[in-house]
Amino acid sequence: MRRAAIAIVLRVNGPCSPVQETDAIQTLGYTIANQYPIKAVADAMAYEVDRGWMQRVGKGLYVRGGISIGREYRILALFP
User: Fold this and answer.
1) Which ranges of 1-80 does DSSP label H, i.e. alpha helix?
2) What's the pLDDT tens digit per position in 49-70?
């Protein structure tokens, strides 16, 4: 699910919240197997912030961080 979260942020031009991420992931046909799907997505986004792939720009708002072109290509290929 972490890769799905970063894939959505890579496609969005601007800040994205966990609620928007959850809606986008479910719109793509994926399910989030957790009692609290928004919290699961927020935790996944926090993990990506720790790796440097996302940046937190405000309370509940994330944007693209430093990610290599090759890694971006592979992540986007997994989630067309």
Assistant:
1) 2-11, 18-27, 37-51, 69-78
2) 898 888 899 888 988 888 888 8
Q: How many CA atoms lie within 13 A of 55 on its CB side?
A: 8
**Residue listed under structure tokens 């928007």:** 20
CB 80 within 8 A of CB 8: no
Q: Give the type of residue at 42.
A: A
How far is Cα 52 from Cα 32, in angstroms, rounded to an integer? 23
What is the spatial distance between Cα 75 and Cα 23, in angstroms, rounded to a whole number? 19
Which tens digit of pLDDT belongs to each residue from 31-48?
888 899 899 888 888 888
3-class secondary-structure state, position 57:
strand
